[in-house]
Amino acid sequence: MTDELRDQLPIDLNMVDYVGAYMFPDNSRRRIPGVIYCASAVVLLATWFATKDSTVLLNDGLLIGGGVLGVVGVFSVSSGWRMTVDEKEALVLATASVGFAVGHASAQQVWRGFRSRPTWRIFCYDAQEPPIQRGLVLIDAIDGRVIESLIQDNPEVPLGL
Known about the structure:
It is built from 3 helices and 4 strands. With about 160 residues, it is an alpha+beta fold. It folds into 2 domains: about 25-80, no CATH class; about 85-155, Nuclear Transport Factor 2, Chain: A. It has a 4-stranded antiparallel β-sheet, covered by helices on one side. A hairpin with a 6-residue loop joins strand 2 and strand 3. It is elongated, with a radius of gyration of 24 Å.
């Protein structure tokens, strides 16, 4: 069948077909569905309050659904942090934190805490060949502070090199 429905990534998240500098999506986009959830919760709760004793077709499910949507909406709005540090700035901060010249490195965005605060996880090796040291640095993507830094000898390099 050629008309098969297939799941696919949104255009702004698909790196395979993208040409040029990639801009990582900002977490503040979480606020949009959060506002929609909160508005839906208000409609459901208002409907429940207006009709709670007058009809059998609308029941306490409106109250429960409105409460759940309200909680999820408030969480989505409160966890919609605006990122001010991109992966390039995080790499510069990580290089300063590890104390050695960085050769190969990779950046990954992760979230920490109950409100899903965005954090850059930078894994880097020193510039020597083969690399003698490696480091893992966590950098807050909102204010740019170094949360944690771990530096160790590279266990993949034989002793004596």
